[in-house]
Amino acid sequence: MFPQSGKSIVFDNFPDPTDTWEIIETIGKGTYGKVYKVLNKTDGSKAAVKILDPIHDIDEEIEAEYNILKALSDHSNVVKFYGMYYKKDIKCGDQLWLVLELCNGGSVTDLAKGMLRRGDRMDEAIIAYILHEALMGLQHLHINKTIHRDVKGNNILLTTQGGIKLVDFGVSAQLTNTRLRRNTSVGTPFWMAPEVIACEQQLDSTYDARCDVWSLGITAIELGDGDPPLSDLHPMRALFKIPRNPPPTLHQPELWSDDFNDFICKCLIKDFELRPNVLDLLQHVFIKQIVGKEKILQKQLIELIDLNQQIGVTEKTRHERIHTKKGSHMKTQSDVDEVDDLATLEYLDENTVTEQLQSRYGRDQIYTYVGDILIAVNPFHKMEIYTPEYTKMYIGAKRTANPPHIFAVADIAYQSMVSYNADQCIVISGESGAGKTESAHLLVQQLTVLGKANNRTLQEKILLVNSLVEAFGNACTVINDNSSRFGKYLEMKFTCGGTVVGAQISEYLLEKSRVIHQAVGERNFHIFYYIYAGLADRKKLAHYKLSDSKTPKYLCNEHIKLGPDIVSNTFYKEQFDAVEQCFKVIGFTLEELGSVYSTLAAILNSGDIEFSAVASEHQTDKSGISNISVLENVASLLCIRSDELQEALTSHCVVARGETIVRPNTVEKAVEVRDAMGKALYGRLFSWIVNRINSLLRPDMPSPSFGLNIGILDIFGFENFKKNSFEQLCINIANEQIQFYFNQHIFAWEQDEYLNEEVDARMIEYEDNRPLLDLFLQKPMGMLSLLDEESRFPQGTDQTLVEKFEDNLKTKSFWRPKRVDLGFGIHHYAGKVMYNAAGFLAKNRDMLPADIVLLLRSSENELVRKLVTHPLTKTGNLAHTKGKGINTMRSPEQGDTPYHPRETTNMRTQTVASYFRYSLMDLLSKMVAGQPHFVRCIKPNNDRQANKFDREKVLVQLRYTGVLETAKIRRQGYSHRILFANFIKRYYILAFHAHEEPAVTQETCAAILEKAKLENWAMGKTKVFLKYYHVEHLNLMVQQATQRIILLQAYVRGWLGAKRYQRILKEREQSALVLQSVCRGYLAKKKYKEMVDEKNKAATKIQARYRGHKERKSFKRNCTCHLSSEEKEKEKAEKALKEKPEKSTNDENVSTPDNEAKNEEEETKAAVVLQSNYRGYKERKKFKERKKTMAGAELEIPPDTVAEEEQEKVGEESTNKGEEERDKAADKQEENEEDEESTYEAEDNDDSDHTQVPEDDEHTEVADEVVIADTPAAGKEGQEEDKKGEDGQENVAEKEKEEEVLDVTDVVIEHKEEADAEKERLEEEQAAVKIQSNFRGYKDRKNLKANKQTAEKEAEQLQTFSKQVIPSRHILLHPVTSPTCHFFLIHTLFLSNLFQQIAKTSQEFVALQQKLNEIIQSKGSMVSDHTFQHNNVFNCLCCFAADKRLSRTPRRTQQPKTLNTPEDSTYYNLIHRSVQDDKRKPRKQE
Fold first, then answer.
1. Pfam families under this entry (predicted)?
2. Counted domains in the chain
3. Is pLDDT of 621 > 70?
């Protein structure tokens, strides 16, 4: 980690605390962090640790406390100091651990408040003892010229043995500045002395060590009252009150002794010159009272501490837990051949190593191992060792199974990440041109394959990231055609299962100065040449204001010509297409792409703006722009006004005393402003592109903590040119830091482990570059600090800077050659480098004028506005914004300046050196978060020629990269150092059963190693030390054992699954049997109910036929009685007709059979009507009884009502037909009445389909009365028989309903599916039957009408007609009184009127029935049964007969009810299907 150095300490020297200490619980929280109780893993002792984080802003306080604790903690009243540790943590931030003595008795404030809560107060003797011990500790500090300055009850801690300790020395050594922010945050102002407060308020005040005496007096009051004075006020209010109020006293002084009050009064004298010191207070009477009583008071104090802890929270214990990643380096290595691993050479020296590398390089074996480090020699030509076949070869393979390869490093890092759930870091180092960038490409390629991206789009995006960023960040230099001019740290994001889900790039230290100037033989960034050639090829140069004949100034070079070298360059055109494709694939929009091109074109055009001096009368330092057209082109591309751009370039504003003064710029100043604008636009554009790439490749996970990272560092290599400037200095400092990081991992920490663990290993000497890093980075006398200091002086020059370096940098690594004014040399780890300081100050300042910032903010281009509006980070990059679109930023309105432009960079002006320092810190903080893997790239020659191996060049690189020392320490040392607990947890399965829990001891670890048959390992006090090849062997054994276990588990799971499956099959079979049983029972019950229902229907039909037969018999008997009374009259009539011719007699004889047929027809009609009405009555009554017992929702609306309405509608339509339809119906009726069988079919049809089923019984009896009303006796007799039949039927129906309540439901369920199929057929049958029934009456009326006409014409035929009519039962209403022709005419008219009355009565019956249905629907209730009223009905019929036939009014005022629900339809089918089934059965012959 980058060393945070103060005046005398370097934090990076401190060891990792997690190797020694384990956090148990939190004790409290301080200003800069928390205090924890920790456990020593070695001896089991406990201590307290103060964790300070982050450490970068408080290094002065840390250094002060560290120095005091280190020097003064040997006193009995000062807390003991166990050491300082430094923990590197990328996620939580670096932490500094101060491990102190555990004072588990709490503070004296806790003790005093605890006693007050119990209604007690501390005894004065105990208070005196505490104050005496605190004075002894302060005396020790003051003698050593140290002021505590933060004395208070919470900083006086107690041990369980009664010890009293002073703690918290964070501000102790700072005698000129009190950290009010820090004191305020912990409440310290209540204890501050008046002179300290006065100094804080910047008054002319000083103070000495007696400020601690005041604080001790306030602490004495706190011990008595529980709280300091003014504690009820805000701390800031207290700071105001303390200097102005009189000295505070106890809350109730009378309750305390005079000595105690006097002690407090002496301590709280406001004039510190009159205040006694610590030695004086030790002689005070109140303090001296404890002399000789120390042991007794100490015991009493111990008792009070115990009592206070019993009331409070008891101490918690927990098992040992390891919090370290060291020792968990699970890399797969083993013994290798001599040619593959330099660490296995028997004799190690420079010549041997060089020869091995040269021999392998000659065979195109460019990769070589040095232990676990890979050396890669640049071949300078394409090689066929990166094909998909090689990719598959190195996936999960054993290291010795294949030759050394860069893919093996990727596989090791990936397997380590997945196996141990830890982040990894691959550091690629080497000088410029050694092949670092290409190695990074190959690593990304292999890791993408290993990560198995969920989609090829993501994989393609990640692979294209490097190409896109390198187009903007790489350039051609003297020694490398594709040199990285920035630092790149690519983090590939993985899930815990190892699937790649995204990527993130961090870019550092972009060489922006290359935009405006390139050294001889070098070029600008690649993208400028790509875009020029690409736009020229697409004929778009004019659109972006670029010339096709003149080379832009920023691209000018003595060796470069616009035509052949740029515009006509095929490679540049191809690269432009590739870059544009990268933009599109990664996710950039066309709008964003156009903005990028416009910005780049504006930068190129701005370099062509020329300035000239403008002379005036008063001043000659003004400047003007000589080529306005170029200025307008730049303004057009940036979407700003050209006049405002000209003003911003040639003048600047200065605000003095509230007034704005505009001062002109000289030509030199205007050129600086122009170049600063170009550099700033390019640098911020590069940062914006990186941020957009990160947002488009960000993984869709709820939190980044759930994933794992593999970081790949590709940074500019060490550079040494003929002329080295500020850029080379920064690059080489970064490489020094990378080398220090390498040394720490490979040498320093490893050898420290050997000493701490008492492992016998020979020490390896190596070149430590720590002093060189201190030369560059130390504060305040480091080179970068001096550069920043000189940059802040307006009159500072490069010459004064070099002189300041010479005066302050007194080390062997720095020298200044003679006769070189601006030159100085640095002896780097890679060799000596001579730097030229010309331009150092200007490059370090890198100021972007506020006028340019304000102008660019007014741009109409979204991207340009964004580049100057978003703030910069501490590393100098554009701050990342949320969202993935270009419109995610809220752009300020034009003309509105919400804040000063300088705030866009930082609250104070930052220099390039400060950005560089923070960039190094950020970069290394990312690196130390993961387990490192090193790839050392070697450049075989400076000519970039293939198959050329320069031994001297390679040897120099081997020396400064420490390859030889690395090989030695890898051969002699132990690269893997694993804690006992981790080692046993990881490998115990090799020697113990899975259910065993072996003890964490050396013996257990040794047993595992002996079981694995390993040699040359070492055992430390807390860790196992292994060679780098041991770990691979152990991992392979664990992998094999795990695979065997997995195989066994698979078989067991298979057996358990098969057994479970068989059990499920048995359960299914049993369940099937139960279901079948239930189903069979249900079907049997359903069939039984159907049989019972059929029996009931058969009984009903038999009863109906019997009653019909009985009724007909009774009717015939009544007719016979009437005929006997009229027989005499007939004889008289016959005698009168004897005189007529024989022909008339024959006609009469022929017509007599016709009259008899008509009589039979009328009798049949009467029987049909009787049966039909009775069946309707029976069905209605049965339905009412079922409705009372059934709870089905389908019976809520009577379905038979709906059926009646539909039938009635059919009848209504047929009745309203014309005479032609009636004739057709009559013909059809004649065909149906040919024989008695067809009559029965008509009866059945009439019964099942046509018969209206009114719910009012009265209407049914009306129809009956119409048929049999020729004699009252017959009507009464039929009525009585009907009643008897109805009573019997009701009894039978009630009994059946009591036995089977769900008959209807079962039938409904059975016929529900058949309802739709028979619906159409039923409607056709209904229509036919309705026509037959309605037109029987019409036929009779037609016949009678014809007979009437015949009687009028032929009087002789009237007598014949009377013979035919007399037998009919319809004309026997009145006896015949005269045989004359007039009598027959009157009688015939009467019969005709009677038939009309019958037809009209049937129509009125239908109308009454419809009205009744409407009443039922409106009221929703069933109409109760009514008794027969024959007399009223007969009188009504007589009235109807007397009236003339009138046209019938509409039967309904509303639409008929339709069957809209399945339940209605189902029940409708139920009623009529049962009757239809009966119709299909053959009818018994009566």
1. IQ, Myosin_head, Pkinase
2. 4
3. yes
| Annotated binding residue 433 | yes
- Max Cα–Cα distance, the chain, nearest Å: 182
- pTM for this predicted structure: 0.49
Q: Determine the Cα–Cα distance for residues 493 and 491; give it in Å rounded to an integer.
A: 6
187 is in an annotated binding site: no
Distances (CA, A) of 1032 to 143, 336, 542, 1194: 59, 12, 63, 79
Active site residues: 150
Q: Are 938 and 429 in contact (CB under 8 A)?
A: no
| Residue 237 domain boundaries | 11-311
Which CATH number belongs to the domain containing residue 108 in this structure? 1.10.510.10
Segment 1390-1443, tens digit of pLDDT: 777 787 788 888 788 888 888 888 777 765 544 444 434 444 443 443 443 444
**Residue for token pair 């692979």:** 463
Interval 1243-1292: pLDDT, tens: 444 444 443 433 444 443 333 433 333 434 444 444 444 444 445 544 54
* Separation of alpha carbons 969 and 536, rounded Å: 57
What is the mean pLDDT of the segment spanning 280-301? 91
Answer yes or no: is 991 a known binding residue.
no
1404 touches 1192 (CB < 8 A): no
DSSP code string of 294-329? HHHHHHHHHHHHHHHHHHSPPPP---------TT--
Q: Which residues touch 1124 (CB under 8 Å, ≥6 apart)?
A: none
Give the pairing type, strands 708-714 and 424-429.
Answer: parallel
Distance, first Cα to last Cα, the chain: 120
- The Cα-based distances of 768 to 359, 737, 739, 743 in angstroms read 30, 11, 9, 7
**Can you say how many angstroms the Cα of residue 529 is from the centroid of all Cα atoms in its chain?**
43
Same domain, 78 and 202: yes
Tell me, yes or no, whether 1020 and 1088 share the same domain. Answer: no
Last residue of a domain, one of 784, 810, 837: 837
Task: State yes or no: pLDDT of 922 exceeds 50.
Answer: yes
Residue 1289: Cβ-neighbour burial (10 angstroms; 0-12, 13-18, 19+): buried
> Do residue 1164 and residue 1021 come from a single domain?
no
- The annotation status of 437 as a binding-site residue, yes or no, is yes
Residue 265 has pLDDT above 90, yes or no: yes
In this structure, the answer to whether residues 1017 and 1147 fall within a common structural domain is no
Closest CA relative to residue 735, chosen from 1068, 359, 428, 1042:
428
Question: 1435: how many CB neighbours lie within 10 A of its CB?
Answer: 11
CATH of the domain at 808: 1.20.58.530
Question: Does 431 carry a binding-site annotation?
Answer: yes
Residues 1019, 1086, single domain; the answer is: no
Q: Distance (Å, rounded) from C-alpha 378 to C-alpha 370?
A: 17
Written as one letter, the residue type at 429 is: S
* Contact present, 247 and 268 (Cβ < 8 Å): yes
pLDDT reported for residue 1434:
39
Residue 430 annotated as lining a ligand binding site: yes
Question: Does residue 1368 share a domain with residue 1280?
Answer: yes
